[in-house]
Design goal:
CATH architecture: Orthogonal Bundle
Strand content: 5-15%
Order of helices and strands: HHHHEE
Radius of gyration: 14 Å
Largest sheet: 2 strands, antiparallel
Strand order of the largest sheet: 1-2
Number of domains: 1
CATH topology: Arc Repressor Mutant, subunit A
CATH superfamily: Winged helix-like DNA-binding domain superfamily/Winged helix DNA-binding domain
Mean pLDDT: 79
């Protein structure tokens, strides 16, 4: 199966709402920058410091757990992160 290279900043991009296009597109653009940089920070952290669970990643990156957890699957799908062993019922994520 051939893997397609997707830029990290594209993985976590939210969609704009159709109900208020002007403000929602502006908000989505502003959020895309922050979300993209968080995805990049997650991957960089795992490459630098090795495997970590989402709780540890959130604490070390200074963000809430709910900001980290939903970004892990898209990173796995893109081939940038992989699941490691489960320790104390928590997945240890690692960079690929």
């Amino acid at each position: 199966m051939e893997q397609i290279a997707i830029p990290v900043e594209e993985l976590c991009r939210p969609l704009a709402r159709a109900s208020d296009p002007a403000t929602s597109k502006a908000a989505a653009y502003a959020f895309t920058f922050k979300a993209g940089s968080l995805c990049e920070r997650i991957v960089e952290h795992l490459r630098t410091y090795g495997p970590a669970d989402t709780d540890t990643l959130a604490a070390r990156l200074g963000v809430r757990l709910v900001s980290v957890s939903p970004r892990m699957r898209p990173l796995v799908d893109a081939g940038l992160v992989a699941e490691g062993p489960v320790v104390n019922r928590k997945i240890q994520w690692r960079a690929t």
